[in-house]
Design brief:
There is one protein chain. The protein has 143 residues and is an alpha/beta fold. The protein is 46% helix and 17% strand. The protein has one domain: 3-Layer(aba) Sandwich (Ribose 5-phosphate Isomerase B, Chain: A). Strands 2-1-3-5-4 form a 5-stranded parallel beta sheet, sandwiched between helices. Helix 2 packs across helix 3 and helix 4 runs parallel beside helix 5. The protein is globular and about 45 Å long. 41% of the residues are buried. Bound molecules: D-ribose. D-ribose binds next to helix 3. This is Ribose-5-phosphate isomerase B. Keywords: Isomerase. It comes from Fusobacterium necrogenes. InterPro entries: RpiB, RpiB_LacA_LacB, RpiB_LacA_LacB_sf.
Length: 143
């Protein structure tokens, strides 16, 4: 499974840790930056990950900024992207089961590393439930 990672300066350090975490588990990584703690604008990285997901270059994306808010808003501008900002493991599970989210958004200044790893693992291993959720998700795409 191939995962695109993107972060601004606020999310850079957590991105690097998640990259190591995923690499150890055998995931293929597409790192779309940023590559340092120097200040950058988060929309660029939300768009880059969103396009990689939308174009099916990767299976899922993970975007990280200080709060996770700005970069999730940016990723969600790309058609076909369903980016979910999650702050706990229940949200990470339910957004896969109910929303078929294809991008996980995290706030590096909001959550700790261990929780982030747990949410990433749950997000990447939980299946969409389909059923009654399918028409709702399809409705999003028609907006
Ligand atoms: C950068 O200072 C910060 O605004 C950004 O990382 C993010 O939190 C925006 O939503």
């Amino acid at each position: 499974m191939k995962i695109a990672l993107g972060a601004d300066h606020g999310g850079f350090e957590l991105k690097e840790k998640i990259k190591v975490h995923l690499f150890k588990k055998g995931y293929e990584i597409l790192d779309l930056g940023t590559n340092s703690t120097s200040s950058v604008d988060y929309p660029r990285f939300g768009h880059a990950v969103g396009y990689a997901v939308s174009n099916k270059n990767v299976d899922y994306g993970i975007v990280i900024c200080g709060t996770g808010i700005g970069i999730s808003i940016a990723a969600n501008k790309i058609p076909g992207v369903r980016a979910a900002l999650c702050t706990n493991t229940t949200m990470a599970r339910l957004t896969r089961e109910h929303n078929d989210a294809n991008v996980l958004a995290l706030g590096a200044r909001i959550i700790g590393d261990v929780l982030a790893f747990e949410m990433v693992d749950i997000f990447l291993t939980t299946n969409f439930e389909g059923g009654r959720h399918s028409s709702r998700v399809n409705s999003i795409e028609t907006i």
